[in-house]
């Protein structure tokens, strides 16, 4: 809003503005209000009511001093009472089981990033010169799961906090190129603010509002203590074939060339097994990687048929490469892949 226009607003207009779900930092809202108060000393009787619409408990001591320096804007007793009341209310924690706690698209508030309309769909986008989107849940919730859908390929990290300070990283996928639906589990913690921070090479990125979910999930999950990656217990369905030829009921590639069958997961997992179905006697080997390069050879077999159990040292996996070295008619055919093996 234009500074001159904002300066001339009545207390009633400022009150209406503060009651809107403003998509900016609470500190920015507070600074704007303090500036308006200093420009409009004749409306000092309205200052306490307007200040009560700002969550001053989220602010730093330095920012709060703006109410008293260089001149007093608010009664110190009222200020202390309001701050105490807000801090008590802010400590209330809700635990909503298996239900998304992010409100509707109209209620959703972001304090970093911006809302954009793309193809008639509301999306969250990176703001200029920033690499993160920060969501304000407005209340404290116990969470252990976050879901959203990526359009494109990018690495990211998830950090959370209660009061816009002392951020904790609960998911670190910065070193992985992720895509599609992300289902992230982490140790349960009390959260109000969720920040999705992307690699700095990303200049523009969007997430559809309806695809973002934050919840306390009762689904059982296991996490690798060293990498923080999930260890799946059931077959992963979020695999995309990025190399190979799909033909009727199988995937194939030509033997004795540089052909292969490559699958990419939507996100990295700790994997140590998989099952392959070969309906023709074949020889093959399996490699895995966290990038579509620097492959690690983990398994090989010769002259086998039927369901094959592939086991190897459990490790971070984002890509699976299956290479046939011998097969009838020089075409290696894979009829089914299950990962992990169950």
Automatic annotation (TrEMBL):
Swiss-Prot/TrEMBL GO biological process terms: adult locomotory behavior; circadian behavior; modulation of chemical synaptic transmission
UniProt xrefs under InterPro entries: BTB_POZ_domain_cont_9
Annotated Gene3D superfamilies: Galactose-binding domain-like
Any one of the GO CC terms: cytoplasm
Species in which this protein is naturally found: Panagrellus redivivus
Name of this protein: BACK domain-containing protein
Superkingdom in the source lineage: Eukaryota
């Amino acid at each position: 809003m234009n500074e001159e226009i904002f300066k001339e607003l009545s207390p009633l207009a400022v009150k209406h503005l503060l009651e809107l779900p403003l998509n900016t930092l609470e500190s920015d809202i507070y600074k704007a209000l303090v500036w308006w108060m200093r420009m409009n000393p004749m409306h000092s009787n309205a200052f306490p009511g307007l200040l009560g619409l700002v969550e001053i408990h989220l602010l730093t001591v330095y920012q709060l001093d703006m109410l008293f320096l260089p001149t007093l804007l608010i009664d110190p007793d009222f200020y202390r009472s309001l701050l105490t009341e807000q801090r008590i209310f802010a400590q209330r924690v809700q635990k909503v089981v298996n239900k998304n706690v992010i409100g509707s698209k109209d209620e959703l508030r972001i304090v970093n990033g911006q809302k954009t309309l793309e193809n008639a769909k509301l999306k969250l986008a990176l703001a200029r010169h920033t690499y993160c989107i920060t969501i304000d849940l407005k209340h404290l919730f116990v969470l252990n799961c976050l879901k959203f859908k990526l359009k494109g390929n990018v690495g990211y990290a998830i950090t959370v906090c209660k009061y816009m300070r002392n951020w904790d990283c609960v998911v670190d996928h910065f070193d992985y190129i992720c895509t599609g639906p992300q289902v992230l589990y982490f140790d349960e913690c009390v959260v109000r603010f969720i920040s999705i921070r992307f690699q700095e090479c990303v200049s523009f990125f969007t997430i559809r509002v309806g695809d973002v979910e934050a919840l306390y999930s009762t689904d059982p999950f296991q996490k690798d203590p060293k990498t923080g990656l999930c260890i799946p217990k059931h077959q992963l369905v979020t695999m995309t074939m990025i190399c190979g030829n799909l033909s009727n009921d199988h995937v194939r590639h030509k033997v004795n060339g540089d052909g292969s069958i490559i699958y990419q997961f939507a996100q990295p997992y700790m994997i140590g097994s998989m099952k392959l179905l070969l309906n023709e006697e074949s020889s093959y080997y399996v490699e895995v990687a966290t990038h579509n390069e620097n492959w690690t050879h983990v398994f090989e077999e010769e002259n086998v048929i039927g369901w094959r159990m592939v086991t190897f040292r459990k490790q971070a996996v984002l890509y699976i490469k299956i290479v046939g070295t011998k097969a009838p008619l020089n075409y290696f055919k894979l009829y089914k892949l299950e990962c992990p093996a169950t």
